[in-house]
Design brief:
Elements (H helix, E strand, L loop, with lengths): L2 H24 L9 E8 L8 E7 L6 E7 L13 H9 L3 E5 L11 H15 L1 H4 L1 E11 L1 H14 L1 H7 L10 E5 L16 H5 L3 H6 L1 H4 L12 E6 L5 H13 L4 E6 L17 H19 L1
Parallel strand pairs: 3-4, 3-5, 5-6, 6-7, 7-8
Antiparallel strand pairs: 1-2, 2-4
Helix pairs in contact: 3-5
Length: 300
């Protein structure tokens, strides 16, 4: 069996297992609410379903309102907007316009494909702001797991021309007022982050991509005081727990404004992306804390 075949076999297995687990978590959750208006399957790029997004608005919205762009997780090989609709609908129920999008997955598309799709979404949001009442002065981004990585990269992309040049993308012309990075993976240039045995390393950040885009993969080199305040969180049983600790220390060392929280304790443990469980009281506590963090920035 070739390396490509073995990677695809492993990815297929992961997609099946993760989908089954997520389906159990989200079973019987509603997908429509009278207080939320949905605009589904809007195209933002040429890649068919992989370049579709949904917009959720509080029903009756007629003026620009604070807006959240959510970047889904899934190890760069799994996930879509349908999986994240429950989380994104929660934001709309809490008074935000929400953009919930698909991006191209690995191994079919390697780095920087998902990031280029994210950049295209940002351009789309700027262009469609009047149509969907996006308040570009109060624009926020959330991302978990691989989406946390993409959120960090989106922050670099929107604030640093040198980073855009590495990727060959134009300035989307938007600026985030704040961001929430949840259970993310950071500092990718470490051997233990993308070792040759990891599916993320083999499927998305492939050896060829890591060679061609070595500088862009060191995203932390392109973060500066131009980025907005961040809410960074992990959980005590998150397998990426140490990534959050490391990123918190980086932000402290570089005097970048942020809030950092580790959720769960010995008696009430929490794992990776627990906040996506809309039935979990501690997950809701986390989501409400991030909402309050954004609201404070709006009112500042």
């Amino acid at each position: 069996m070739s390396t490509n075949d073995s990677v695809m076999q492993a990815v297929t297995k992961m997609r099946t297992e993760w989908h089954d687990n997520d389906a159990k978590r989200d079973a019987n959750l509603p997908t429509h609410f009278p207080e939320v208006q949905r605009f589904d399957n809007l195209s933002y790029g040429p890649a068919g379903v992989a370049n579709q997004l949904d917009v959720y608005l509080p029903t009756g919205t007629t003026e620009p309102i604070p807006t959240v762009i959510n970047i889904h997780g899934g190890g760069f090989v799994y996930g879509d907007k349908e999986l994240y609709q429950h989380y994104c609908l929660w934001w709309a129920q809490n008074g935000f316009a929400v953009v919930n999008f698909n991006y191209r997955l690995a191994p079919e598309t390697i780095f920087p494909g998902a990031l280029l799709d994210t950049a295209a979404v940002l351009t789309w949001v700027k262009q469609q702001a009047a149509t969907y009442h996006f308040d570009l002065n109060n624009l926020f981004v959330t991302g978990d797991s691989a989406g946390g990585t993409l959120t960090e990269q989106a922050l670099a992309l929107t604030t640093n021309a040198d980073y855009r040049d590495l990727l060959g993308v134009t300035d989307p012309g938007i600026h985030f007022k704040g961001a929430a990075l949840n259970c993310g993976l950071y500092f990718l240039d470490r051997p233990e982050a993308l070792d040759d045995g990891s599916i993320v390393g083999l499927a998305y950040f492939t050896p060829s991509a890591r060679k061609e885009y070595a500088a862009a993969i060191r995203t932390e080199d392109y973060l500066s005081s131009a980025i907005p305040p961040l809410y960074v969180m992990t959980a005590n049983q998150d397998f990426l727990h140490d990534e959050g600790i490391r990123f918190d220390q980086f932000l402290i060392d570089h005097q970048l404004p942020h809030t950092f929280n580790v959720y769960g304790d010995e008696d009430h443990t929490r794992g990776h992306v627990f906040h996506l469980d809309m039935r979990d009281p501690l997950g809701q506590e986390c989501n409400l804390a991030e909402k309050a963090f954004f609201t404070d920035l709006i009112n500042a």
